[in-house]
């Protein structure tokens, strides 16, 4: 299943830089296709909703490179399916561990964009002296192939590292996670902080901070 995950990530990463088709790279779409491929619609869409809420307002625009949502989403989906997880208490750690992949994916994409400087210069020279009509197509295919291979390799390495780590944790502490009592509602509320932060209003941040403090007092004060 990890093999399927790296294939799907490499494929969907092309919708980000090579072929833009609307919202195909959003977590909800990724979760739907993963559910269709594995038959695990419920867990797949629950995971997709979590990431969709967390990165609600981060949309590619201009030179800004937002987090690679597909990397984190596919990593969480692949690991959840591989380990056969269905409890939010266990899936929660997979979600949090997969989040750094969004940042790593951004770094890989930035590196790939810098590599395209040579292709850009070659295209400028070709525009002044178009000696071969195949050069633009060659540059596009080379760029797509480089992106596909790099996305495939980086995602495979990252997911295999996470898989080995969770193998050790789940075998060493098999009964550690269920007693936490975490539900999908808890995870979605935590992820909705991303949407609230997108408002960029100091008053909203103050309300959020006050809510967190009140909840902490209500949750932990009786035990003090």
Structural class: mainly alpha
Stretches where pLDDT is under 50 for at least 5 consecutive residues are none
Mean pLDDT equals 80
Distance between the termini: 46 Å
SSE pattern: HHHHHHHHHHH
| Overall spatial form | globular
Sheet-strand content, in percent, reads under 5%
Report the biggest beta sheet as strand number plus sense, adding barrel if it closes: none
Helix content: over 70%
Q: Could you give the count of β-strands? A: 0
Query: Compute the gyration radius: what is it?
Result: 21 Å
How many helices? Answer: 11
Question: Keywords, please?
Answer:
224 residues, 11 helices
What does this molecule look like?
The protein has 224 residues and is mainly alpha-helical. It is 74% helix and 0% strand. It has 11 helices and no strands. It has helices at 2-17, 27-38, 41-54, 69-83, 88-98, 100-115, 117-128, 135-172, 184-191, 193-197, 202-220. The longest helix is centred in the last third of the chain and has 38 residues, at 135-172.
């Amino acid at each position: 299943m990890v093999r399927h995950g790296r294939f799907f990530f490499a494929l969907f990463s092309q919708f980000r830089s090579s072929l833009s088709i609307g919202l195909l790279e959003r977590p909800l779409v990724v979760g739907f296709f993963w559910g269709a491929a594995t038959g695990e619609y419920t867990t797949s869409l629950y995971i997709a909703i979590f990431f969709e809420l967390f990165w609600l307002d981060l949309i590619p625009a201009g030179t800004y490179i937002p987090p690679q949502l597909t990397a984190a989403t596919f990593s969480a989906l692949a690991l959840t399916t591989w380990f056969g997880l269905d409890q939010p208490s266990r899936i929660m750690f997979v979600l949090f561990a997969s989040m750094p992949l969004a940042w790593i994916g951004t770094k890989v994409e930035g590196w790939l964009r810098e590599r395209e400087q040579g292709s850009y210069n070659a295209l400028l020279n070709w525009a002044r002296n178009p000696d071969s009509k195949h050069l633009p197509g060659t540059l596009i295919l080379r760029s797509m192939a480089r992106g596909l291979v790099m996305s495939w390799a980086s995602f495979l390495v990252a997911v295999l590292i996470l898989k080995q780590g969770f193998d050790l944790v789940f075998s060493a502490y098999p009964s550690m996670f269920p007693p936490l009592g975490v539900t999908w509602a808890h995870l979605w509320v935590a992820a909705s902080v991303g949407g609230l932060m997108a408002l960029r209003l100091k008053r909203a941040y103050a309300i959020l901070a006050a809510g967190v403090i009140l909840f902490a007092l209500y949750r932990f004060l009786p035990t003090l």
